[in-house]
Amino acid sequence: MKFQKHTSDEMVELFSQKPFQGQVPEKSKIIFLSSDANYSPEISNHSFFKYILEYQKDSIAFWQKYGCHHPFMLQSFPQEFNRNKNGVPFHRNFSKLCLGPEYAGDISFLELLDVPTIGNKSQNREQFFKMVSLNHLRYIENLILGGGHKLFFVSNGVLKDIATIRKIYSVFAWLDITSASERRFSQVINGNRIKGIYHFSSSQIHSQLAEIKSEINEWLKKN
Length: 223
Prior knowledge:
This protein has helices at 9-17, 49-57, 59-66, 88-95, 125-131, 134-145, 156-168, 209-222; strands at residues 4-5, 20-22, 30-34, 37-38, 107-111, 116-118, 151-155, 186-189, 192-197. It is of the alpha/beta class. It has a domain at 4-40 and 106-222. Helix 2 (49-57) crosses helix 3. The longest helix is centred in the C-terminal third of the chain and has 14 residues, at 209-222. It is globular, with a radius of gyration of 17 Å.
């Protein structure tokens, strides 16, 4: 399947209004920064799509209403959709943090792309970098540089994407990622912390779940 912007105009329009999920990033204390919000191309033609739209319109209300952070975790998630791709492994592993709806007001999910996608980014990385928006990248950069005592969790793969992006665009030059592949990345800037982790779609993330949850709780206590 070709990696591209999602084929649902309704989904794309919602992302143009809110290029994030969860709390408004400016108000959040914990931000999970990923590469793109990936969905099955078929999901927009299924009755379950109403939950995806409900979530994107108000993720906090969704989490509080259904008791889970994402529609993929609903028991009614259709059996015919592959649970091993299209963003499902990410959210399944995230749910293993066992964060309840009381966290909804503190957590944002943000991506380097400001549009929802279909297909596998790893199969067409060139297309991924063509799809980035400089305005959106500057928005992310301003969030990190702007203080507010936010904790950013960023996977090593996303850090590598950022390393490529800053060769193309004049953003993220201040980010010290020269040795990110050699150690567990961590940088503090203007009261915000950027912490490198495994990607939530990787089985390796299981070794970090307890640490991530502990860091979230400690950060919220202090900030």
